[in-house]
Specification:
This protein has 251 residues and is of the alpha/beta class. It has eight helices and seven strands. It has a single domain, classed as Rossmann fold, CATH 3.40.50.720. α1 crosses α8 and α2 runs parallel beside α4.
Length: 251
């Protein structure tokens, strides 16, 4: 991945059951970190890192789990907020439940982790937080009003937390992936050529294509997360790196 060593460091990754969260937790594990993955479900038979089942949208459960983990090990070097869900539909056809669930997980989940860990980061006067937003926070997509709005709110939240923690030496950054080869992405593909259609773009939906001509791999997102958490990014904070193969044209 990034080539950085995280030997002996403690890393928490939400959404670690699959997709970008899983690949990120795996990359930190391979870089020597003590990793705890947090997620609602862990569908694989085995995981090479410690796992804890938790609904990040449940504030009381998050508080309970984080207190237990911090009692076991009072230091937290890196927090990665990668948990997220996608609920699609035209804005006026989207259910209230779908809207609420999207914000509860995508924004509320990170908020709950921030509330549970900010004091620890302040006290230790160091650490890194990387939050996974989306290129949908930068460019609107038809049928993705809840997802895009939640990720835009998540970006604002993460930057505010970064500003509040900056004077304590804690760096807070974001990555905003575009289309990435995950289960969430594949659930959106309805035809055999859906991947190539996404690369070409959908002019009728004002969806841009991907200039690099490929879908991202989760490992490519994980590599950027490890870089932002590493000493190589020691003077980088309050930044949002868009990793979309150029599809938002730098927006």
């Amino acid at each position: 991945m990034s080539g950085a060593s995280f030997s002996g460091q403690t890393v928490w990754v939400t959404g670690a059951g699959r997709g970008i969260g899983y690949q990120t937790a795996l990359a930190f594990h391979e870089a020597g970190a003590r990793v705890t993955g947090l997620d609602l479900a862990f569908p694989q038979a085995e995981y090479p890192f410690a796992i804890t089942q938790v609904d990040v949208a449940d504030a009381s459960r998050v508080a309970e789990v984080t207190q237990r983990l911090l009692k076991e090990n009072p230091r937290l070097d890196v927090l990665v907020n990668a948990a997220g869900i996608l609920r699609m539909g035209a804005t006026d056809a989207l259910s209230q439940q779908a809207w609420k669930e999207t914000f509860d997980v995508n924004v509320g989940g990170a908020f709950n982790l921030f509330q549970a860990t900010m004091e620890v980061f302040r006290q230790q006067r160091g650490g890194a937080i990387v939050t996974v937003a989306s290129d949908a926070a930068h460019t609107p997509r038809i049928g993705m009003s809840a997802y895009g709005a939640s990720k835009a709110a998540l970006k604002s939240l993460a930057l505010t937390v970064g500003l509040e923690l900056a004077s304590f030496g804690v760096r807070c950054n974001l990555v905003s992936p575009g289309s990435t080869d995950t289960d969430m992405q594949r659930d959106m593909w309805q035809t055999p050529d859906a991947e190539q259609q996404r690369i070409r773009g959908f002019a009728e939906q004002f969806k841009l294509g991907i200039p690099l001509g490929k879908i991202a791999r989760p490992q490519e997102i994980a590599a950027a997360i490890l870089f932002l958490a590493s000493p190589a990014a020691s003077h980088i904070t309050l930044q949002d790196i868009v990793i979309d193969g150029g599809s938002t044209l730098g927006a």
